[in-house]
Design a protein that fits this description.
8-stranded mixed beta sheet, globular, 32% helix, alpha/beta, 8 strands, 277 residues, 8 helices, Spore Coat Polysaccharide Biosynthesis Protein SpsA, Chain A, 2 domains
Amino acid sequence: MKINILIATIDQGLEKIAAILLEQRSDVSYIVSHQVTDEKHRPVPPALKRPDVLVDQIAGRGISRNRNNALDLAGGDVALLADDDVRFTGDNFEVIKEAFSADSSLDVACFKIATPAGEAEYKDYTPHQFVLNDINGHYISSLEIAFRLAPVRQRKIRFDERFGLGSGMIQYGEEAVFIHDCIKAGLVVKYIPRYVVEHPFMSMTKAMAEYAPAKNIFKGGYDARRYGWRAVPAAIYNTLQLRKELARHNKGMAEYLSERLQGAGYILRSQNNRPSW
């Protein structure tokens, strides 16, 4: 089983990739999709010029576009998503291989993120494995996701480029949409309580307030992505449901509803331009 580590980075982030690489091994390769917005960041560091590392440079911004480019270049059996600030051990790769080798039905796995010594657990992870579906949910981080390339490609599943950092109005949540698409396409998606990567406890999403505009806009857009026009009455209903909770967080109901509708409207207006999957 060959694993592709799909690393998305932009501009000076390329200089951080060398710290991610482990000693070369025949069953692991690194595919680095590097978005270049300034030519001064184009030179590839000598440390990345290894036979197990592919660096592909593209113009523009958008984490989903970047991940799609890495996905297009992948040629292994299983892919693991990564950013430029993670760390791996050889044991992480063995965990991935064991999970997919032991379960032939497994198409997509959502693992756990470890944190550096002395930091809190990245999430309140449940210790039990389970199948993800529309009933059994799980807050997904991109760094937890590994998947078999063949079934994802067969069903033409890609990252929706309207979601994610640098993608426009909706600045995160591309991984939730990706997992939703996998489930909707009939792939078997499981949460597996084993660590496959290390990342500091703090992240951009965690730094946001509970009802930050970016979170509310995402919620509206995600609902529209899943339910179409019904996201609009859902936003109104949820706003009324949350009125006391919003008040506790000093968030006005009108402001919250407006942000939910911004996200929903953005997705509904662009439905005709969405990919065919």
